[in-house]
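hiii, so i know i said id send this last week but things got crazy w the move. better late than never?? heres the sequnce for the chain we talked about at the cafe, plus the structure i predicted for it. fair warning i was half asleep when i ran it
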Amino acid sequence: MSKISQYLNEHLLGDTTTSTAVRRILSTDSSMLAMMPDVVVYPRVTNDIRKVLRFTYQLAQKGHAISVVSRGAGTDQTGAAIGQGIVLNTTAHMNTILEFDGKQRLIRVQPGANFGAVNTALKLQGCFIPAYPDSAEYSTIGGAVANNASGRLSGQHGAIDESVSELEVVLANGDVIQTARVSKKILSKKKGLQTLEGEIYRAVDNLITDNQALIDDQLNTSVIDNSGYAALRKVKQKNGSFDLTPLFIGSQGTLGVISEMIMKAEFFNTHDSFVAALLPDAHSFIDFIDELRAVAPDILEIYDAMLAKQAHVHGKRYQLMSKAAEQSVELTTGGVVLCGFRDFSERVRKKKIKKVAKLVQKHGGISQEAFTPEALAEVSALRGLPHAAVYSDEKNNVVPSLFRGVYIPHGRFEECLQSLRLLEKTSGVTLPFSGYATDGVYNFWPQFTLRSAAEKQKLLKLYDTFTNVIYDHGGSIVAEAGEGRLKMPFIQKHTDPNVSKMYADLRAIFDPYGTLNHGVKQPTELRSVVAHLRPGYEGVDEAGYSSPS
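okay and structure toks below
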């Protein structure tokens, strides 16, 4: 056991280990990368996290910087949950729902709590947190907050930042702070503190003042983009009130370690109504989606024809497809749409479903309505299309998570797809897609073998061009989580240098010695990322198999 591990064991209530087996397990997350930690800590209480960070901060002051990575279930697809140094894993002990205020619908919870379990508990009270990611059944709520996760209901409810009320955060030096929106008067008191917290309030306020024009010009946009610290625009309001909470949401543990959260829940409606539709060609598919937005569905999931055809080849049969075949409607270049309404009124839901069915008929498609639990289960099975398409055989192909969580503006969606179809022809790699058309966040499912260095180079070259296409059409590649390590080399080319400097200055305020998740959300060369590509990466993604709604 190392001296560091022994020291921590002597001072923590939680568990510390340097076991090679444990460190190997935690050397990977759901990304393509691998980094072996030196020490793994399972904190039991916030004070354990505080002691670890105070210890590494003091070492860094003496010139011995050790990175601290906060980790939940390891479902992060960008390499943000791995790193050398110390990994803090909260899933073992800090996984409790501490209290629930039914009147205000507020839940206080620890970061290691399973997201699906939290929503299950809330649903017993008639509530839920709507911005759950697809991985909710086996990921943590702390990880979702650290990534500002979103999901199928985010088009109506926003990302998880809309559900976060207050945070307890351990700063880089081990100090513990509570974040919430404070008045101009309270801000003045905070800025007078002779602590790291006081320095943060003073420095962040000055940073915003000095860069207000840049923030207004570059960060106040409608583009869904979790890269960097774009939430800086939400910190200070015109009335002078101030809230550090938005900065920690989506920061992937680079500004502090979240040890508790107070979340705002929404009322949960158990009465869903769905309609599934098959649109035969690309033109009718796009037009139908555009017109469907006017009906304001709560859920609008789309799957292109390539995914549906691949799933069919692998033997997957869906009632909607069988119905289309019976009526001689052939799926060529269009796709499948899953549209859901969660209004409390059954009459309203049926009225909206009727409108959707008329739109399907107008565009020459086939629809399947679902009101009963049995019918809902049948149409909900369509969510398995991507996985039936790319994971059903034994070709040993890899489907990299790099291409997930892409934002494309509604008005440029068709134009962007045309450019991506050209990219398919030049690269020889198909780019089937699925996504949430309510907020414009999509996943692409290309397949690679990745058995050779040449194949890995092909992947990275394709992703570089893919990224250029997305940004050229006003989109972003970091729309449902953070950029971590993996996407950073591709993002920095599209980031204003002044914005990059502002982000670096902000990070230095919170983490002056670089001890918090070093290498994540920081400019880096591609070769540095390539050096950590794991040879045995298989690209398996379980996310599509969970469905808490």
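btw The chain has two domains: 1-268+487-549, 273-474. thought thatd interest u
miss u guys!!
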